[in-house]
Amino acid sequence: MSRPAVLVARAVFPEVVERLATHFEVEANPDDVIWSRAELIAHLQGKAGVLTTGSERIDADLLAACPGLRIVANMAVGYNNFDVAAMTAAGVLGTNAPDVLTETTADFGMALLLATARRVCESEHFLRAGLWKNWRYDLFLGAEVHGSTLGIIGMGRIGQAVARRAALGFGMRVLYHNRSRLAGEIEAACGARYVEKDELLRTADHVMLVLPYSAESHHTIGAEELARMKPTATLINLARGGIVDDAALARALRERRIAAAGLDVFEGEPRVHPDLLTVPNVVLTPHIASATRGTRLAMANLAADNLIDFFTTGRPRTPVNP
Ligand code: DGY
């Protein structure tokens, strides 16, 4: 019997491609060229499965042009690149890569919060530019992290992992807002209290965004929400670009209507809003919250497991449209 043909749409660890090649006819994208949509569709011809990284939009038009496709395995927990309804209608399964990145991503959330509140990058640039003349009592005064109030918007697995770190490790008061309130024992385990979004924005010293992107969460933080935050507050976006109105944020940062921001994700990334590049009080990182070798390998292997399980047992491990 011929083996199913599978496309690996972006470069991933060679050992994962080799693993896939023991089960499938594999076409990989080793040079990591970002294919245009037409090129992606051309490469998908004759393929029954594809491993994606989250940047490939899977919608009704693409599915209509790729009638042999049966499964799309995202190497990401977020799957806002999937039109899930269109995939279900076309009988195509989608899978994501949850759990394996939770703790690593939460670690990075704390790294970004600390770097932003304590002005790590701004002061490092100052030092490298040769501007440091002396110790001064008021050099790069930052915001307190320990004992302050963290407001988390989006309290899924990653939000909860951040809450545990903040409450148990840094003695922070943790507030959260989520579509639905968590069970009492989960709130207690992560030391977090549910509040309405407005209260969270008004009272938090640091606001961290960890919610999935969807039409409903588009611009969850825009000019109005930024105006409700404390002028001393920081904003951290660990989730997806598009959840924050980057132009409004750049204005708020420039006018010091909030103190600082830390962003790992951007609207239309890898493009970054040019105004964000010119304000000093923002820490910008290139979507690396899950980027440790162990975690990225686990994400790629879970995507591969989903393809292998689907074609051998019919049941992938982490479907999003079962
Ligand atoms: C995810 O898994 O959704 C991350 O953003 C990709 O690193």
Automatic annotation (TrEMBL):
KW rRNA-binding (keyword) present: no
Transmembrane segment boundaries: none
Ranges of residues in domain D-isomer specific 2-hydroxyacid dehydrogenase NAD-binding: 110-289
CC annotations in GO: cytosol
Gene3D superfamilies: NAD(P)-binding Rossmann-like Domain
GO function term, MF aspect, one: hydroxypyruvate reductase [NAD(P)H] activity
Pfam families for this protein: 2-Hacid_dh, 2-Hacid_dh_C
Keywords per UniProt: NAD, Oxidoreductase
Superkingdom, taxonomy of origin: Bacteria
Domain D-isomer specific 2-hydroxyacid dehydrogenase catalytic stretches: 6-321
The keyword Transcription is annotated on this UniProt entry: no
Family: Belongs to the D-isomer specific 2-hydroxyacid dehydrogenase family.
Protein name per its UniProtKB record: Gluconate 2-dehydrogenase
Organism: Tibeticola sediminis
Lineage, top ranks: Bacteria, Pseudomonadati, Pseudomonadota, Betaproteobacteria, Burkholderiales
